[in-house]
């Protein structure tokens, strides 16, 4: 009798597990189908290249959860590659250097001075994806690609960011970076402003970053995470390229690079190398800008921060905000000292805009010791 009851009990448990498993499968299938219903193809690029293909690849964005097109062309658009699960990195960037900064449009500058979007892919974890959807709804700064999140998809994400920028924003300058980078916001803005005023940016030459010198040979060791097969890349030497953690280029260069995407087959994993191939095809060469810090240059933290346009491997929200405060206190001190001495001040109006948007108050020299 006891054995019979035990068998019936086990049978009921197995039936329940089977039914619940079917329910989960159907739920996941439906949610995947629902996500696909919101997909819009960006790259067979009918809108960019009149239907021409990008190599043999197709990249898609999920329109329903992706950032809307720019209402006006920004001066600098920053496209940050970010893993779906890196919610807290994105949040720390928004709090430090990633907020949108705008002004009244002038003859020389657009209304949007600084705008950041995050290029994010898809993971199988529904909980993480629901968090991404909610984040996208709140901030409207995520470009969600139908791209599996893994190391070999980095090139697809970078290409998506470039194409989205060119198709939907047409910025004066385009910055590409990763979500473990701190950007010296005001300094990078002035850097681009000076380039724009010197008429250097519209030429083919304005592509600046940490130019790779020692790692231009493809790695053929299958045990390396950077392994590339001969099918991935058959050459013996990569063309010059900027390291992918952070670089900036002009709209002219962005146009030339995106135009070449249809002719250069995408290679996985090494997105910065692929951008170098696009540039090489366009006759564009990168220029070394030593203030893009791949590694620390100074032992003194203040000196390191103030000398950098962008700094790699900044992983915590605490450091992102700390670096922002150190940099703004420095600029505030400089401007206030010049004001008190009644000296001419370049870029003072620009600094006021950036200060106000970052600290939500008018610039006041009594804040010198309060910023940090």
Tell me the strand percentage band. 15-25%
Shape: globular
Q: Radius of gyration from the CA trace?
A: 24 Å
User: Mean of the pLDDT scores?
Assistant: 84
Quaternary? single chain
Number of strand elements: 13
Features:
3-stranded mixed sheet; 8-stranded mixed sheet; 11 helices; Spore Coat Polysaccharide Biosynthesis Protein SpsA, Chain A; 372 residues; alpha/beta; single chain
Question: Can you offer a commentary on this structure?
Answer:
The protein is of the alpha/beta class. It folds into three domains: 1-37; 39-293, Spore Coat Polysaccharide Biosynthesis Protein SpsA, Chain A, CATH 3.90.550; 313-367, no CATH class. The protein contains eleven helices and 13 strands. It has helices at 2-37, 46-49, 87-96, 126-139, 154-168, 185-197, 251-260, 271-282, 301-307, 317-340, 348-359, and strands spanning 39-43, 59-62, 76-81, 101-102, 112-122, 142-148, 173-178, 181-183, 207-211, 242-250, 287-288, 292-293, 310-312. Strands 3, 4, 5, 6, 7, 9, 10 and 11 form an eight-stranded mixed sheet that branches. Strands 8-13-12 form a three-stranded mixed sheet, covered by helices on one side. Strands 1-2 form a two-stranded antiparallel ribbon. Helix 4 links the parallel strand 5 (112-122) and strand 6. Helix 3 runs parallel beside helix 10 and helix 7 (251-260) crosses helix 8 (271-282). The longest helix is centred in the N-terminal third of the chain and has 36 residues, at 2-37. It starts with a helix and ends in a 13-residue tail after the last helix. The model is unreliable at 23-56 (pLDDT under 50).
């Amino acid at each position: 009798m006891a054995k019979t009851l035990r068998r019936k009990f086990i049978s009921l448990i197995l039936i329940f597990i089977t039914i619940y498993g079917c329910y989960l499968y159907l739920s996941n299938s439906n949610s995947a189908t629902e996500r696909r219903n919101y997909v819009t193809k960006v790259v067979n690029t009918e809108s960019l290249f009149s239907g021409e293909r990008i190599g043999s690849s197709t990249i898609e964005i999920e329109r329903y959860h992706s950032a809307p097109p720019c209402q006006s062309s920004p001066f600098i658009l920053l496209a940050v590659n970010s893993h779906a699960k890196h919610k807290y990195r994105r949040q720390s960037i928004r709090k430090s250097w990633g907020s949108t900064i705008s002004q009244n449009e002038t003859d020389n500058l657009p209304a949007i001075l600084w705008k950041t979007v995050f290029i994010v892919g898809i993971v199988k974890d529904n909980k993480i994806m629901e968090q991404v959807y909610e984040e996208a709804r709140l901030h409207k700064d995520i470009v969600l690609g139908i791209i599996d999140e893994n190391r070999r998809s980095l090139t697809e994400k970078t290409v998506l960011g470039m194409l989205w920028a060119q198709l939907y924003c047409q910025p004066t300058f385009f910055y590409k970076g990763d979500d473990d980078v701190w950007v010296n916001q005001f300094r990078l803005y002035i850097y681009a402003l000076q380039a724009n005023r010197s008429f250097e940016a519209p030429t083919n030459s304005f592509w600046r970053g940490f130019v790779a010198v020692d790692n231009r040979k493809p790695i053929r060791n299958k045990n390396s995470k950077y392994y590339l097969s001969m099918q991935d890349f058959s050459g013996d030497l990569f063309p010059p390229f900027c390291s992918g953690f952070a670089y900036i280029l002009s709209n002219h260069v962005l146009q030339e690079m995106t135009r070449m995407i249809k002719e250069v087959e995408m290679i996985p994993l090494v997105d910065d190398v692929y951008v170098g191939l696009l540039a090489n095809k366009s006759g564009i060469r990168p220029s070394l800008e030593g203030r893009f810090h791949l590694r620390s240059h100074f032992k003194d933290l203040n000196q390191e921060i103030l000398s950098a346009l962008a700094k790699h491997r900044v992983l915590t929200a605490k450091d992102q905000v700390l670096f922002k405060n150190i940099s703004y206190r420095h600029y505030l001190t400089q401007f206030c000292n010049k004001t008190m001495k009644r000296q001419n001040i370049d870029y003072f109006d620009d600094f006021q805009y950036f200060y106000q948007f970052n600290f939500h108050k008018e610039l006041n020299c009594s804040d010198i010791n309060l910023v940090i």
